[in-house]
Amino acid sequence: MNLISQTYYSITLISAPKIPTDLLWDLTIVFSGLGIFFLFGVFIFRNRLSNKASKVAGQKKILAPIVSNFLFYETDASKEENFEYINLKIEIRELLKSPFNRLVLTEILLDLEKDLSGDSRDRIFSLYQNLGLHLEAFKKLRSWRWELVSKGILELTQMRVVAAYGFIKKFINDKRGVVRKQAQIATVTLKHEGISYFLDTTRYGISEWQQLKLLDVLRNFDDFSPPRFKAWLTSTNRDVVLFALRLIKHYNQNDASKALIELLKHKNDQIKSEAIQCIKDFGVFEALNMLKTVFRRCSVDIKVQILDAISSLGKVEDIEFLETIVKRESNFLVKSKAISAINVIEPDTYVPTEGIDNYITVENFENNEQDNPTQLSEVMKNSELQPDDSLPASENKEYSLDNQDHLDPEFEDEIIFDLCFTEELEDILSEYNEAEEEVSYLPLDFLPVVSEADELKSTSAKITENRNVETKGNLQEESFKEELEAILNKIKLQEEDSINKDAETPELEFLPLVVEAEGEENIENMVEISAEEILSLEVNAEEVVMTNSEAVVQNSIDWMAFSKEPEVFDNNTYSESLSETPQDDSSQYTSSDNENANNLKEYSGFSIFQELFRTCDKESKLILMDEILAVGDEKEVYFLKTLLNDPDKKIRTKAEKVLKELQSLLTPEIETEEKKDQVQINELDAEDLHSAEEIPEAVTHTDRVPISILDKEEDSLKSMEFCFLSHLPSDDSNNQTQLFQPDFELVETPLEEIEDNLNNNNDNELNEKERKLLSPFLRNIISFSEKFKGKLNG
Amino acid sequence: MVKKNLLLAEDDELLASLLDYRLQKGGYNVHLAQDGRDVKEYLKGATPDLIVSDIMMPYFSGIELIDYVRNELNSKIPIIIISSAGNEENVLSAFELGANDFISKPVSPSELLVRVGRELNKQ
């Protein structure tokens, strides 16, 4: 049993403590009571405050008219008003006995002080003191409660009670921050000298906000003459120095250079920063050495500011210092600022280096020019430089052919622009010539004169040579016309150069070929033809021999150059031979022998398809060949023949097929037309040959034009190049003769030459008509390719 | 001489009473309105010669008042706007809607009197 009693013993279970419910009730009652008391207190206080507010509002309504009456009382008022005023004074004295009324009146005046300005405001200040309300504020200053003291200071400051200055300034160094700050503002506000007193005496720090408020007070002063704030740069109070520096900057007091330089050594970064700003703004050049000296010890921000100051004050001598910073400084910001400072002192010292391809240099560019003569010539042409003639034309030609598919579209645009420009100029000239007979003065002054002086001189000399007697007015007009023609010539000469250099340049391939030749040999043969051969020449049905003066031949050369068929014509050779033997022109340029005629048999006019073939692919070429069959004529025959040598077999085969079909289509038509016109042509040829004999130094030039075209109507013409012929009368033999003048083919001949021809030749009327023909012809040519392209593009 | 009727719309009672006093002393009959609703009520039954209105008012701002007068009443009554400084946007809006003049707070009662006289003389 003992063992059992030792092993097992009764375990006392955890049981809830006995709750003293009485105590709980007591606590509930206590806390409920406290809650009710608190709510009751809130209710009472709220009610009291609201009652007071309503009382004040009610009292304000009563007192406001009295205040208004006092404010707007005028001494020159009527007796009734004066009587009322005196009564109000008595009434208000009674009212002022009550503190509540004093409080309300103070509130009214303080509110009105905010809402009113001008003389009403000044009256409020006076009324406030006249009613003795400032005494209440003075009492508040003596209070131990900081909020009351602060309120009293604010009241006295708002009401401009200057008498309170002496009382308030004592609070400048008050240990209570709010009172202190209020006193500082009051001191500065109440008297102008308050700022000096404040800066002299303040021992506490001046917060940034406080500085702003003080500055705002100073700014709103009327007739304020600020003291020399450099006096406080020596203050032991760091904030006073800082504020003084800001005031110096604000009032532009630049008489503190030495102090500013000395402050660069200040330990405080803010002061340093302000000093640097002042130095920069006032242009204190003496500070440069100090700026450099202190630079190393400064923080990054100050360093940046110093560099900024150096950039505005520094000279070339300071660049060395800046260079050392660029080299040694590790901070990116400082380094960048130093570079920018150098660039400010000496612009463009540092140029961009980041992301620059160093391989692109001027030398490389020159090498590129050497490697690429065509591009160089283009560049030179664009910049009106003379291209290098050392390179043979054949090389250029090959290069041009190789690269014709890679021509710069902008360059093409330039050429088109040149053509359009030429066309427009010719239009103007033609219009001018048309109107010349009718109008004595053509207002072309709007056109810019871009001819060089030399050209103008030469043209004016030409005029004087060609025309012996002319009136002054005519001379002016003529010189202007010559200027325009000189421009034309210049453009065409450039194009000639491009022909020499870039033979077969595709941009001008669309221009019609009116002379057929098969290379230099033919031309040389043509040149060597003797006068006897010319006389014995038999003109066949497809030939027209045209005779004219030397100038006209020159025109034909120009036109040929313009027509850009270097394969056929070497323009340089041709012109050279012309210049060498001017006396033998008639023999040299009579080129209508039978051999040449056979060579020239194939009309090799410009085919628009040639242009299109240049840029399209194989499939398109095949499609275009079908189109050739549909719309093609002699020019296309020639073009198709060139395609027979195409590297592509398909194209060759197709070209051969189309050529055969086209030839079969064209042959009967030409034959019938040839027969029809043979008689007329023979007559004309005979006449022209005689005229060639009669004119000394005349040059006969043979070009081949399909006779069939001459008599056809416009709708029967297959080639747009000859559309202009439809306007010509075909029945008159003289007019037909005009057609066979070289000018007929010299559509692009510069009008200057035609003008020369005009002077030299008696056939003025003839040339007038020729000129009229030129512009529409050019327009047709140029617009045709565009129209055709447009149609193909849909 | 018949006194001109002015409508003064200003929510600040103290300022309103002061201006009222000054304008009455200047020779005008002034009707005070505390807010926009009062203004609307008054305008339904009367047509003042001039309205002086604060821009910031409860229920019905000065801008809305101008809009109401110009567009709903189709009236050309001269309106002088009182606005606190730095409230340029509202002033511009007021002028766009057809306010005739503007005076900034703090107001100089003498200046207001001159402006009122000038606007009435224009008529």
Summary of the model, kept short:
Chain A is mainly α and 794 residues long. In chain A, 66% of the residues lie in helices and 2% in strands. The chains are: A mainly alpha (794), B alpha/beta (123).
Characteristic terms for this protein:
heterodimer; A: about 800 residues; 39 helices; B: about 120 residues; alpha/beta; Rossmann fold; five-stranded parallel beta sheet; about 25% strand
Q: Biggest sheet of chain A, strands in spatial order?
A: 1-2
- Cα gyration radius of chain B (Å): 13 Å
What structural class do helix, strand and pairing data of chain B support?
alpha/beta
Domains of chain B, number: 1
Residues in β-strands, percent of chain A: under 5%
The computed structural class of chain A is: mainly alpha
Helical coverage of chain B, percent range: 40-55%
What would you call the shape of chain A?
A: elongated
Unreliable spans of chain A are 373-409, 437-443, 451-457, 459-473, 502-524, 526-603, 688-752
Q: Unreliable segments of chain B (pLDDT under 50, ≥5 consecutive)?
A: none
Chain-averaged pLDDT of chain B: 90
**Major pleated sheet of chain B:** 5 strands, parallel
Sheet-strand content of chain B, in percent, reads: 15-25%
Mean pLDDT across the residues of chain A is: 70
Largest sheet of chain A: 2 strands, antiparallel
Q: Which percent bin holds the helix content of chain A? A: 55-70%
